[in-house]
Amino acid sequence: MSMNRTDVVGEYLREVELRLSGLPLLQRRELLADLETHIATLRAEQGAQSEGELIEILERLGSPEVVAAAAYEEAGPRSAPMPGPMPGPMPAPVPPPTAPAQSAGSGLPWWLIGLVAAAVLLFLVGCVGLMFFAQTSGTDAPPPAPAITRVG
């Protein structure tokens, strides 16, 4: 059974959501909405048409475990990630993997920074394109009328 593109993204987001169950509901919903928007932007920018291209985009974002670990790291020490889907009672929370210390000013998620950078780049390309077409359309003046000479 082959999944379509929406199923692949939906499954990816469900896997991330399962791993974010230790975060507050509103924070989890906001993160998933931002992630879905980021994926849609990447799809549009790269013109991803096939399922393989979409899977490539998701692989570059990182596995659901990596994305969830980054979200827990961003949320701070009070939030601890829960392991993936497992039947039965919930096991004790697992602390997020330790990473190099971040500077105090780096409070934005990496994918949000990338999304803003992509939007700015798209805007600049659009401006340059408009300037180009405005210049070329000004040179399309009609040819001058032929001069009429009287013979006589």
What topology does this entry show?
Elements: H1 5-19, H2 25-46, H3 51-61, H4 64-75, H5 110-138
Helix pairs in contact: 1-2, 1-3, 1-4, 2-5
Protein described:
- Helix 1 (5-19) runs antiparallel to helix 2 (25-46) and helix 1 (5-19) runs parallel beside helix 3.
- This protein has five helices and no strands.
- The mean pLDDT is 76.
- By secondary structure, the protein is mostly helical.
- The longest helix is centred in the last third of the chain and has 29 residues, at 110-138.
- The radius of gyration is 26 Å and the shape is elongated.
- The chain has helices at residues 5-19, 25-46, 51-61, 64-75, 110-138.
Q: Which runs of at least 5 residues are low in confidence (pLDDT < 50)?
A: none
Structural class: mainly alpha
Radius of gyration: 26 Å
Number of strands: 0
